[in-house]
Fold these 2 entries.
Entry 1:
Amino acid sequence: MKNIIKYAVTGLVLGCCFNANAKLTVPTFEQMPVLAPEQRHSVSCLRIFNYFTRAHYKVVTIDNAFTKKVIDRFVTYLDYNHSLYTKKEIDEIYANSPSILQGLEKCYLDYPYAVYNENIKKRYTKYKYMLSLLDKGINLNTDKSIEIDRTSGNIKDKKLGFYYADQEIYKAVAKETGTEGRRHPLTFILEAADDIAYKTADIEDAFVKGYISYGQLRRELKMLPEGCSGPSFDPVEKLDRKYQSGIKRGVMNPEEYAVKNWIVQLQGFLISCATYGFTSNYEAIMDGSYDADIFKGTYGEELMNLLGDMAYRRVFSTPDIYRMEVTESVILDFLMTKFVNAVLYYDTEKEMSDIDLRLISFISENYKSAYHNQAKGKSEAEKLYLRLLLVTDYLCGMTDSYAKRLYQEMNAII
C-alpha cells in the first residue's frame, strides 16, 4: 500500500512540476489579458450580497470571519498547487481583508481584480521561465571526481552511495545524465513522494494499532508553530471537520473516520507543498546547487518534521518495536553468518561441505546467474567480494515472514 501511495504521489508531483514540458508558442507579455470591473458586475455583486443577507435559508453575516473564508477560497483558486506565491505575499492578501470586505459590501472590485491580474503575470513569468530552461543543453564532456562528506549538511551527501561492483555503471549513468556528484532533479521528487507516502502511512498505522489516539494526534497538531498552516489547509481544523462529518454520517467510529480521511487530504496538501518547493527552487535544483529537500521553506516543512518526530516518539521508540528489532537482528545475524560461510568456497576449486551446498541451493537462480555474469574475468579477490554481495542481495530480497520461517526451519523450531 505504501508503494502504491508513493508511486501515485510521484506521478502527481511530476505532473504538477513538468506540465510545461511541451513545445508551445509563448505569447508576449503585452498579449496577456488585463481584466477590470465592468458596470454589470456591480449588479451581480449586489444580487449575491442580498442572497446571503436576505434570501438565504440562513442569514449570513458579512464580517471578518466570512471575509477570511472568501479569501481562503480566492487564494486556493489563484494558486491551488502553492507554486506561485510566497508566504509573505499570501499574508499581504489576508492583510488586505478590508478591501475584500468592501468588495463584498459595496461592490468595490478594484482590489480583487488587481490581485487576479497580478496572478496572471506570475503565471506568465513562471511558465515562460520554465520553458526557456527546457531549451538549455547539458554538458556531458566533463570528468569530475566525487567526494562524500556525510557531515556537510548538504542533502546530496546524505544518501549517495553505491557498491564498488556498481561503480562503472554509476559513472556511466552520471556522465549520461550530467549529474556527476550532484543530485538528479527527479531524485527530489521521488524522495518527496517517498516521504509523503511513508510518513502519512506511519501515522495511520500507528492510529489503527493504538499507538496514537485521535486526541493525541490533535494535541500534537496544535503544537505546530504559527504560520505552518497553508491558506487552504489548517491541520487541526481539517481533522475536526472530518470528525464532525463522521458524526453527521452516523459512522460507528467517527475518530477512525476522521483520521483516515484527514490523511488523504493531508497527502494532497503535502503534494502541493512539494510542487511549490520544486518550482520555487527550480533553477538551483537543475544546476545542482540546491542542498535541501523540497519541503524546506514551504507550509509543509514543520508538518513533515512533526509527522516523523511523532512516529519516532510514539511508535518506533516503544518497547514493542525494540523487542521486534532485537528479534530481527538475531535472525539476520544468524542468516548472514550461515550464508556467508556457505559462499566462501562457492565457485572455487575448494571442496564445499554438504550443508553449505544445501544452503547455496536455497539461493534463487536469478541471484546466482547475476553473480556468474559479474564474475567473468574477475580476480579471486573480486569474486569473493561478489559472492558476499550475492548473500547480501539474497537476504535483502527476503520478506520478513520468509526470513523468520527460514530461521525457524534452520534451527529446527517447529
Entry 2:
Amino acid sequence: MACACRLRSDRPHTVATLLKAAEELRETRPSEPEWIRVLRQVLGATRERSGEALALVIDAHDPSVETTLTPLRRTSSSAWSTKRASWLDLTATQWTSVTDGLDPTHVSLLREGYRLAHEGQSWHARTEVTLGALGEHAYTWLTRLVRAGVELFASADGLEPFTLSHATWDADVDVTTDENGISLRVVARNGEQVLPTPRIDRKAGLLLLDGGTRAARIEGVQALEGFPLGRALTIPAADVAQFRGAWLPSLRRRFVVSSSDGSFDAEARPIVVLVGTVRRDEDGVVVRWWAEYEEGQTLFAHARRAQHGDEAVADLVGRVNAWCGALRSDLWVNIPGAGRIAPWHVPEFLSTFVDRQTIDGLVWDVAEDVRAITVAEDGMGIDPGCRGGGVGLVRSERAPARWRPLAERARGPRGDCARGGIRGGRRRVGAPGRASYPCNGGPARRGPGVDGLDG
C-alpha cells in the first residue's frame, strides 16, 4: 500500500487505513443472532472432536431374550463395525493402543456403563452388558451417551436408530371380567394413551416401544414385584367376592385400577353385611365381628375387614356403633372391639340389641347355648328347651359373689347348643368349605354350615 508521507516504513497512515476498513466491514456484515450462539454452545456444534466417535447397539428386537448392548466404531471406510470395539477392547487399560484415536469422552462413558452393569453381580460374562444389568442407572446413562454424541442404533449395521423417549409412563392395573372370573393385567399408561400388552424391562425400569427401537421410563414397576408382566393374573369366579372384599381396596390405594373394556367397575361397592357372632368360651360370652361380601353368586366372610374395613364397611360400622350406643352405651363395645359380656347380662344384651328391629346390614348370629342362659333372683340356670342339654352358669353356694361354669353336661348326644352351633335362627354366612379368619387371630374352625363362625 503506497502512502504520500515521507516515511519509508512503519507508516502509521497505512495501519490506520486497515483498522478503518476492518471496522466498516464489521458494521456491514450482519451479526449472528443470540439464539444461534446459545444453541451452538449447548449442542457443541463448534466443538472439535478430539478423537473418533463411538456408537452403541441396543438389540431389543427379540422379547424372549435379554436386551444386549454392543459398542461400535468406524472402520477405514467410515462404516460402523464391532471390530476392535468389544467391551474388553474398550475397558482393558493395558491395551491402550486399541483406544488410541477414539474420543476419550466416549470411551470414558462406555467404561462407566460396563462398571455399572457388573457391580454387585455374583456372576456375569465379562464380554457382555445387558440393559437389565444396568438396573436403575439404565435411562440416565443412555441419556448421557446421547448428549455426549454417542449414536444409538437398534441393529449392528448402524442403519436403524434407537431413540430415547422423554415421556414417563406409569404401570397400572387393568381388570376385566367374564363368566370364568376376573383377569388382572399390568398396562402402561401415559395420559389417555394405554398399552394393554406393554413390553417392560423390569430390572431397568424401561418400557420398550415400537418393536424394541424406542425406550421410555416407566414408574411403579418395582412395586409390582412378583406380578406377571407378560400374562394376566386370573381370579376364579368362586373367589371374586374375596377379591372384592379383601384385596381390591388395598390394590386401589397403591395403583390406578381401571377396566379397558368397561366390564369391571372398581368403584362399585359390593353388598356388605356386618355379622355379629355371639359365642361362649371358657371365660364367658364374647361378641366378634365379620364383614361379609356378596358378589354375584359368591360369598366371602372376612374378619379383618370388620376391623380395618374399606369405605363400605366403615360406613356400616359407624351406623351400627351410633345406633347401638344410643340404645345402651354401658352394654355396647364399639366395633371393631370384641365385646365381652358378663353372663348375667346376656339376656339383657339379647333383648336390647339382638331381639328387636335392627338397621339394614346388621345380622346377629347367636349360638343356642348362649340363648339358653337365664337369670333369676336365685341365680342362673339353663333353658331346658336347649337341645342336647347345654352349659349354663349357676351361683355357687359356697361363694355367693362368684360365678363358675357348671362342670357337668346333661346326658345324651352332643347337641347344637353344647357345641355352639348355629342351626335355626341365622342365615348362612359362608359357602360350605370356604375358609374364614377369626377376629381374635386364632385358627379358623369349621362349623356345620358356616366356616369359622361356630366359635
